[in-house]
Design brief:
Layout lengths: L1 H57 L2 H10 L1 H4 L27 E3 L5 E3 L5
Antiparallel strand pairs: 1-2
């Protein structure tokens, strides 16, 4: 009985060693992939920072004012006037739609509602 137990223990040890070997390489591959993704994220964040800086540079009010003045006739722009702006009272808000409620009475005279939550 002992030789069988030794053989099974040896086979289990070999199987666990093989499993640990495979898991080690799978973990290393996953770590390399994560490193690559982190480098890619850093690169994208740097590119986004550069694009935000360029956007801020291109949207400077003095630059836009100069462009609008230089291309005023070609764009057909009109000067701004106070009458172009409205007040909050002039905004037409949609009316709130109320749920329809129907009431019924039974034989005993009890009034019931078909609406939920009432």
């Amino acid at each position: 009985m002992r030789p069988v137990l030794y053989a099974l223990s040896f086979l289990a040890l070999i199987a666990l060693g093989f499993w640990a070997y495979r898991e080690n390489y799978a973990t290393q591959a996953a770590l390399k992939e994560v490193e690559g993704l982190q480098r890619q994220i850093v690169g994208l964040r740097e590119a986004l920072t550069v694009q935000r800086a360029e956007w801020a540079y291109l949207n400077r009010p003095d630059r836009l004012r100069e462009l609008a003045t230089a291309n005023f006739d070609r764009l057909g722009l009109m000067p701004m006037e106070p009458s172009q702006f409205g007040t909050a009272a002039q905004v037409a808000y949609p009316a709130a739609k109320l749920p329809e409620i129907s009431f019924t009475t039974d034989i005993q005279g009890t009034i019931t509602s078909d609406a939920e939550g009432l």
